[in-house]
Write a structure and sequence with these properties.
10 helices; 45% helix; alpha/beta; Rossmann fold; DNA polymerase, domain 1; six-stranded parallel β-sheet; 11% strand
């Protein structure tokens, strides 16, 4: 009997990429361009990972649908302008140890994927700017899927790789990641360096939480042993 396929799915913002400054800056510009008071940086970080228009709705629930879309489009345009000058995700650093952890996993028989609240264009820019595309066999975004915590992104990773949910681990920094993994029947592994607090991750169903990338391999092995 052959060993099961093991799949590790990574969130991007707040998990692999420390993009809070560019995200907060773009959201600030989007709100100000509509003469609206911008959310605080803490408020913006709370919605990282959600589909964009859902994120704007949570930040400003009193806005009508047309204005929510307009603010969301302004956010996207702010990123596009930043990218033209080498900014955006390209100027956001990867977290310490991220590349080494990916390289170590990539050298094993585990399959790696991405499930992110970013649009496809933003993910492509990130993967190319940081030379990460080589690691991943499946990548899912909000362009092709419903946003987190809907399980569709994880389910499509399973479909594309042939892995089973019980052998799959969703790795992320927000409650949306933990809930998405659980909703898909997968394991959920929280990281403590992102945008939501450790207790929130636990309450959202995290099976384990790590404090640094050098703990990742052991944590993944532990969860795969439980499968």
């Amino acid at each position: 009997m052959s060993d099961p396929l093991r799949l590790a799915i990574f969130d991007v913002d707040g998990t692999l990429l420390d993009s809070q400054d560019v995200i907060v800056g773009a959201m600030d510009r989007a709100f100000r361009s509509h003469d609206l008071p911008p959310p605080t940086s803490t408020e913006t970080k709370r919605i990282v990972g959600l589909e964009l228009y859902e994120a704007v709705t949570r930040l400003a629930p009193d806005l009508d649908e047309a204005l929510i879309k307009s603010v969301g489009d302004a956010y996207k345009n702010a990123f596009i302008e930043n990218r033209k000058t080498g900014g955006g995700e390209a100027e956001a650093p990867l977290y310490a140890g991220a590349v080494a952890a990916l390289e170590r996993l990539h050298a094993t028989e585990a399959l790696l994927g991405v499930a992110t609240g970013k649009a496809r264009r933003g993910l492509d820019h990130t993967l190319d700017a940081h030379d990460l595309r080589r690691f991943f066999v499946t990548t899912q975004t909000c362009t092709e899927n419903p946003g987190k915590p809907n399980p569709a992104m994880v389910e499509n990773c399973l479909r594309e790789t042939g892995a089973e949910a019980r052998d799959t681990i969703m790795i992320g920094d927000t409650v949306f990641d933990m809930e998405m993994g659980k909703n898909a029947g997968a394991w959920s592994l929280g990281v403590a360096w992102g945008y939501h607090e450790v207790e929130e991750l636990r309450d959202a169903g995290a099976d384990l939480i790590i404090g640094a990338f050098d703990e990742l391999h052991e944590a993944l092995d532990e969860l795969w042993r439980r499968a």
